[in-house]
Amino acid sequence: AALLLKSVTMSDSATLPSPAAPARSSSSWEFWGRWLVVPYLLIFLVFVLYPVGYGLWLARHPESYIKLFDDPIFFRTAVNTVVFLVVAINVKMVIALVLSGFFVQTRWWIKALSVLFILPWAVPSIPTILSVRFMLNPEWGVINSLIFRTTGLDGPNWLNDPTLALTFSMLMHIWKSLPFWTLILVAGRLAIPAEQYEAASVDGASNWQKFRFITWPSMKTLYLTSTLLSMIWTLGDFNSVYLLTGGGPADLTHVLATLGIRYLRLDQVDLAMAAIVVALPLVLPLVYFMMKRLSK
Predict the structure, then answer these.
(1) Is a pLDDT exceeding 50 seen at residue 152?
(2) CA-wise closest residue to 279 among 44, 48, 56
């Protein structure tokens, strides 16, 4: 009996799979996984780390920042940047919040209208912004031609006034990026359970009370995170200003993103990099607060 039990045990142990096989398969997957990450790391190194490191190296001299702060255009640019961020971003996000309540409806004509609404964000920036610039031309632009035909008076030079030029740049930014953030907030509204609104309707709640006690508490984190992310992206956006006004008139509508381009055109690379580096005190706190909110 003992010999029979021993032979059965030996035969069972011989039929059991080897524990080294899964380990060998796992190590093979790990090997190929590491090799597949290598191209991404090379791209990240060449196109992200190297440009950032080289830019910081070019902007390493304190003399560059002294020359930058002595330039009167820099102070005006810093003010323009703050105004652009505070006004354009908040107006855009408030309008996006309102429009998200409109486009979340299920009527067929609203769905058809949403296709047209998304076009400004979908089409490229260069032709759209240049088209608006041509429309605002004081001599042969569509707007001034229409004013002359209806009133017999010459229209104003819209982009020759710094305040008007910066205002049109902010309107251009709002018009171009509003559809994207509206879609983000529409997605946030659709994630709210419909049962909450049904229960509120049964209790006799008004539309404002539904928004105040259901919609806003559910979307507050998304709204604030989107606002912070929009500020970060807008700090690096030079299309709305550079393509519309070119920083003019007299370099009075520059923002930090376009000021670096101005110095590059003047062959002052160190000042261009310094103008970008001074934006870091604005960008890093925004990144910190955004990541802090996302980690909650």
Answers:
(1) yes
(2) 56
Q: Is 288 exposed, middle or buried (0-12, 13-18, 19+ CB in 10 A)?
A: exposed
52: which 2 tokens? 């950032």
Gap between the Cα atoms of 245 and 237, Å rounded: 14
* Cα angle for residues 239, 77, 227 (degrees, 5° grid): 60
Q: How far apart are CA 168 and CA 12, in angstroms?
A: 82
pLDDT for 14 equals 45
At 21, phi and psi to the nearest 5? -65, -50
pTM of the model: 0.80
The pLDDT tens digits for 186-205 are: 999 999 998 999 999 998 88
Cα R_g (the chain), whole angstroms: 29
Asked if 159 and 248 touch (Cβ cutoff 8 Å), the reply is yes
Distance CA 260, CA 143 (A): 32
Question: CA 105 → CA 99, 113, 117, 194, distances in Å?
Answer: 10, 11, 15, 12
Q: How far apart are CA 175 and CA 184, in angstroms?
A: 16
